[in-house]
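Section 3.1: Structural characterization of target chains.
Under the original work plan, the team committed to producing a structural model for every single-chain target entering the pipeline before any wet-lab resources were allocated. The record below documents one such target. The sequence was received from the expression subgroup and is listed exactly as submitted; it comprises 338 residues.
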Amino acid sequence: MLIRVFVLLLLTVIQPAQAAVMLIYHHVATDTPRVTSVTPDELRQHLQYLRDNSFQVIGLDKLIHQIKNGEPVADNAVVITFDDSYENNFSTAHPILQEFGFPYTIFISPGSIDKGDGPLLSWKQVKQMSDDGVFVANHAMWHEHMAQPEPGESRSAWRERMKQSILAAEDKIEQVTGQRHKWLAYPYGEYSVELEQLVTELGFIGIGQQSGAIGSNTVLSRIPRYPAAGRYAQMDDLSQKLRTLSFNITDYHGVNPVSPANPPTLKLTLKIDDFRPAQLQCFAGSEVIKPQWHNDNTFSVTASSVLKGSRSRYNCTAPSLSKKGYFYWYSQPWINQP
């Protein structure tokens, strides 16, 4: 009897977590770099899986509206996005997505299109996609590295350059398509606290490339996305990512992806109501990092050795108590200083 009462109380306290997942694609082709590509058959398989398993494929506009207005994020929602303005988004991906009737967003760099810098979309194709209902949004003017000043560049000059890149790209998109969403996908997924501040001041939403689910408390200057190309295109990997939840983070303790420390420290304060702290695990590459709990809600993690390469990340996960087979997932990107 006591066990039954305890279970009923537990079910009353723990509400089923709701979360959305945003997917990022680049190339849809068989002759492009595998790391950023899915084949047409793989894309079709992904979309069919979403349909067969009752995922809600929604537009990015709906997701942002829900977060901005404090509304519950649609459960098992998926948002589809494409980066980098590739022509095969129009010639190959667009017809497949039209077959399924799924909304999606393309993030484009107008300066790169004007320059013809690679096998990119034409403005005629962009306009056609827009007319067909595709959301067209900002990927900076030149697909430049945005997170920090160039060597020898002052911070004020860098800030003005970033401001002009963002606004000029938005103006060009509006000129061609009539769309002006103020959604910025950071090129290469790179951002910093200073860039977030600028993006927010300009009234934009900032979208990264770090992994993670999206919930009602997701910060609108660093929205995560899951890659769905290369090795991540496999359904066994993608199906698990689609069943992830967003940690309810109440304090990031000033964490900045551009950290002078290497290895950097990640410190987070969480609202803990649907996972057990003892089951929280964090990773730096293949290294398992044991969280150091400072109190009942705050932990920190630091890798045991210097992070290699120019970019890296920590991933933290914990299994949900309310949704069987679902995991909470948070990814912190780092831009390692030389």
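DSSP finds nine helices and 20 strands in the chain.
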